[in-house]
Design brief:
355 residues; alpha+beta; 11 helices; 9 strands
């Protein structure tokens, strides 16, 4: 799937912003301090470029764009390893509200605030929750909620339905995580806290749709990670010399990078197909998402591993960003359903024998 002229213009704008503002050494410093998100960068991305409201209809203050444009933004965020609550707030939480129906009491105002980036929200379900399984049921603390510590609103799925809870009315306990650029936390909200915006049956359907959308567009972020790792590895092996020749000219390394290139090309096809299926509401969107996640997640991990290995000693250092990409790839491999869970979904949706 080729990108339209509008999508390429959006890509250029986001990449230019991230090139100027998303400094990897500064990111590492913020991540070590436990607060990786740069508020100024998020404000520029959300308000100046309008990324926060891409999926929100124009009548509610958004851009009225589609999942294809959101996928472009996520590709660039993955390439730059820029920590921003775009996936959790502007995609998953926003999609939850849209699935409930924008005219539901309390929803239009919250959508308008999310669209401008003035506030952020997260859907308080585990980061590993699969869209192909029923969402977690019942009350009590929720473990492994991504970006909860910086969110203004927590959308909590309770026994009585979906509640919008202000961050100040909940307890958010940070967890020790592998990926320092996307913090996880335990979220606990008192019974009855917040505003009930949907009954349980309606909320479950909305949450499953939001998780499916999140999984499909997460593939674009993983694609961005894989593309950066491949390009950085090729650049390094061209520049690094051994025995008076670039190490990238050695046949064994050529073969490894060629296999990686094939993986990235096919990952690009599956990720963009998933985004297109979501954008058009295609009946086979769940299958397209499952295929994208089953393949792209593993490609991102392999690309990051090869990036670390083919940089040799340099890739093992804390200062080089390769380890950030490897940690992001490993963490997203288990996010919104593991590759194994998505392969099982492919078999079921396509009526194939289970892998």
């Amino acid at each position: 799937m080729l990108c339209s002229e509008t999508e390429e213009e959006l890509r250029a704008a986001v990449r230019s912003l991230l090139t100027d503002r998303a400094d990897l050494p500064a990111l590492l410093t913020r991540a070590e301090a436990g607060d990786p998100v740069d508020p100024a960068l998020w404000a520029a991305l959300a308000r100046d470029i309008g990324a926060a409201g891409l999926l929100v209809p124009e009548e509610y203050g958004g851009q009225g764009a589609s999942h294809r444009e959101a996928a472009v933004v996520l590709e660039e965020l993955g390439r730059a390893m820029a920590p921003a609550p775009f996936l959790t707030s502007s995609v998953i939480a926003t999609e939850t509200l849209l699935a409930l129906g924008p005219d539901r009491p309390g929803v239009p105002g919250l959508l308008a605030e999310l669209a401008t980036g003035r506030r952020t929200a997260v859907l308080a379900v585990p980061y590993a929750a699969s869209p192909h399984e029923p969402p977690p049921a019942g009350d009590g603390p929720v473990t492994g909620v991504a970006d909860a510590h910086g969110a203004d609103v927590l959308l909590t799925l309770r026994a009585d339905g979906l509640r919008a809870v202000d961050r100040a009315d909940a307890t958010v306990t940070p967890l020790t995580v592998l990926d320092l650029t996307r913090p996880l936390a335990v979220v606990a909200a008192p019974e009855g806290a917040g505003t009930l915006i949907a009954d349980r049956a309606t909320a479950v359907g909305a949450v499953r749709r939001a998780l499916l959308t999140g999984a499909g567009l997460l593939a674009s972020e993983q694609l961005g990670v894989a593309e950066w790792c491949l390009e950085e590895t090729v650049r390094h092996t061209r520049r690094r010399h051994q025995f008076n020749r670039p190490v990238g000219s050695f046949q064994a390394l050529k073969h490894r990078m060629a296999r990686l290139w094939l993986g990235v090309v096919s990952a690009r096809a599956t990720a963009r197909n998933a985004a297109a299926a979501l954008a058009t509401g295609a009946p086979d969107a769940p299958l397209a998402v499952a295929v994208a996640q089953a393949h792209t997640a593993t490609v991102a991990v392999r690309a990051a591993e090869e990036c670390v290995q083919l940089h040799a000693g340099i890739g093992m250092t804390w200062e080089h960003p390769a380890h950030l990409y490897l940690k992001r790839a490993k963490s997203t491999e288990l996010a919104l359903g593991s590759p194994g869970a998505h392969r099982l979904a492919v078999a079921e949706l396509a009526e194939l024998p289970a892998p």
